[in-house]
Specification:
Elements lengths: L1 H24 L29 H5 L14 H22 L6 H21 L4 H22 L2 H24 L6 H17 L1 H24 L12 H28 L1
Helix pairs in contact: 1-3, 1-4, 3-4, 4-5, 4-9, 5-6, 5-7, 6-7, 7-8, 7-9, 8-9
């Protein structure tokens, strides 16, 4: 297990480094391959020794080696966050005896980090990321079901994806100003990975997104930074609710049942 966790952490750092490229280039419809990593201020290529995740930023002390322009601290934070989430998800799935599904949920973390930050930056959830993820996650969950001989999990994933897609579609149809179709497409993706775990996980994840969004909206209003009509990107709350459900759906569901029985 320690070896698996160490491998997850290193993979997370590497994936986080790539996600920084995705977050910057995909909204601009730029290639992820060419040109190579370079300073956005002076255009100089980043040297290989400076392109190591986290280490490169620390060695350079957060500045370009050529023009000394500051390099945003968000770059190492994305790498650290991705690595931390990779380790946490690995531990969680191991505890649930779901390691065959680990590739699917590590991919979910990576996509979730990228989409959340792109949505915060641009108020967009690019199809270039969301739509191919249906195929990737579908194949990963299919392989996990086949490995475990648990086809009921795959059926739950399909049902969860359809149910959450239809819920968000209905909300977007009823109130287009409050829900974009990018959220609808992301909902189907998240519903699938939540349903694969369990029905309580799906229900908690769906509810948690709206709870987190409502709390954030309340903070915006109370802080004077906006009003009830201020548009907030909902993608980060959807991803956050999904991650919360992955780690805490069981105790939350048990607490709800206990409260309901004694109400």
């Amino acid at each position: 297990m320690p070896i698996l966790l160490a491998a997850s952490a290193l993979l997370g750092l590497a994936v986080g480094s790539f996600l920084n490229v995705v977050i910057h280039r995909v909204p601009r419809a730029e290639s992820l391959v060419r040109p190579g990593s370079h300073c956005p201020a002076c255009g100089h290529a980043i040297r290989a020794r400076h392109n190591l995740p986290l280490v490169g930023w620390l060695v350079l002390r957060g500045r370009c080696a050529d023009c000394r322009s500051p390099i945003s601290v968000r770059y190492p934070l994305v790498e650290l966050a991705t690595a931390g989430l990779f380790v946490a998800v690995t531990m969680r799935l191991a505890a649930q005896h779901l390691l065959p599904a680990l590739p699917a949920y590590l991919y979910l973390v990576a996509v979730g980090v990228a989409l959340s930050l792109i949505d915060l930056d641009c108020h967009r959830l690019p199809d270039a990321i969301v739509l191919p993820s249906y195929a990737v996650l579908g194949l990963c969950l299919l392989a996990a079901s086949a490995w475990q001989q648990d086809w009921s999990a795959l059926v739950r994933a399909l049902a969860g994806g359809v149910a959450l897609f239809l819920l968000y579609f209905a909300l977007a149809f009823a109130y287009p100003a409050g829900m974009g179709f990018g959220d609808v497409k992301l909902a189907g993706l998240l519903g699938g990975v939540l349903g694969f775990i369990s029905l309580p996980t799906l229900l908690v994840g769906a509810f948690a997104a709206f709870l987190l969004g409502g709390l954030a909206g309340g903070v915006v209003i109370l802080s004077g930074r906006g009003s009830g009509k201020t548009a907030l990107p909902f993608g980060p709350f959807m991803v956050g609710g999904t991650l919360l459900a992955l780690f805490a759906a069981e105790p939350i569901a048990d607490l709800y049942v206990t409260y309901a029985l004694h109400a």
